[in-house]
Amino acid sequence: MKWLTKSYVGLVMAFLYAPILVLIVFSFNQSKSRGAWTGFTLGWYQKLFTNEVILNSLMNTLIIAVVSSVIATVLGTLAAIGIVNMKRWTRLVVMNITYMPVVNPEIVTGVSLMLLFVWIRTAGVQIEFGFMTLILAHITFNVPYVILNVMPKLRQMDRFVYEAALDLGCSPIQAFFKVVIPEILPGILSGFLMSFTYSLDDFIISYFVSGATSQTLPITIFSMTRRKVSPEINALSTIIFVVVLSVLLLVNLNDSRKEHENRMKARARA
Prior knowledge:
Shape: globular
Radius of gyration: 23 Å
Number of helices: 11
Order of helices and strands: HHHHHHHHHHH
Mean pLDDT: 83
Largest sheet: none
Low-confidence stretches: none
Distance between the termini: 40 Å
Helix content: over 70%
């Protein structure tokens, strides 16, 4: 049965990663055709770094992702701390409301935000569809993910540690930054990374709230597919995949190193 298990796992991995492998291979293909290999070249990577449309879209995407993720992380962390300190029934109601943007279809969220921004404009507030609306929309759908990542860490934290810090002379602000933040930091980082990833990847919501001059990379790629996808997109996708894979490997190596150090310390104490 071992061979059957290994074969099944191999088929699943091939199904998941074969398209990415094909994309990487054809990013080095001389021809624009995705059906025939005509020779090795780095020309598409050179053209990628001279394509102003793609580079501007990539820069917009990164700026929007960073700004919205940082703001969403701050707001989500503060909201999670407030929710934990609520009474039971109030907390249940607020958590159900928090889950709604997560389970709500993205097209509904996108249309709702678009109509909201249109109503704000008719109310006399000068807000143009573009950079600002994209950041506000990304903050809106990122905050719930931060809350859901920080909440478990707050539940695991011993509240008496915070009270002990106050008894030892810390002010509430000092105790918050020196005790609470270090305890929930893994949840904060997870929420930030999840927000950053969703912001980079989002297409549907961004499509409804973007402007003509501030488009994200997914929207630019979608507009290119109406004509013909350039191999420059293959090159860009390859670079993004390599960067993400490298980050994941570094994180896993760091976690493995810390786990090994903890085991060694445990053995030394024993």
